[in-house]
Task: structure prediction
Amino acid sequence: MEFIEFKNVFKVYENGVTALADASLSIEKGEFVFIIGQSGSGKSTLTKLLYREEKPNKGQVFVGGINVGKLKNGNVYKLRRKIGVVFQDFKLLPKLTVYENIAYPLESYGMKPSEIREKVLRATERVGLKDKLRSFPNQLSGGEQQRVCIARAIVNEPKLIICDEPTGDLDPKISKEIMEVLKKINEDLGSTVIMATHDKEIVNKMKKRVIVIHDGVIISDKKKGSYVENEDV
Result:
């Protein structure tokens, strides 16, 4: 079985908007996949279905063999422990230091302080922020804040990393640095990376798998794709 599978998935919101229509795809463990499309095309909905922020109206979503839509609410946390999410707007807690922001999810799992420290230090080393552990988010640049977000997402070495427009608010130079960090994590940890993005330059440079969504429908899926091939998207 593939690591991720969407089987004839439909997602219709209460306002009547169809975000996904009969979406089917499979992703292997360790793949790096870009999801591209216009705003409102269904990219974010697809990623939210993976960590059970949303549930499909019809069809099935599997992550690591787990039927995500059928998970009981009390068991969703078990799924999310295996998934790291990187957001465009960082979602850092402003009154916590870099160390505390990254440690926060591990503390909620009830992990020992010594184990938390080891994991946090390893994660900050991966993203190049070991010298910023005592800083607060407002003392960091946008690129540094996104690195903290990535460190928090990978601190438990998840099997799946979901990135929703992670470079959307960053300049090209910083965006390139962030992508190098994600590429290295994908290679070093073997984590599957799924990234929704509008950034044509990054997609074209990386030459990874590209899935195109238009009005909730998957219209293209290429193993080594680019944004150039899809200028109408």
In short: The CA atoms of residues 93 and 124 lie 17 Å apart.
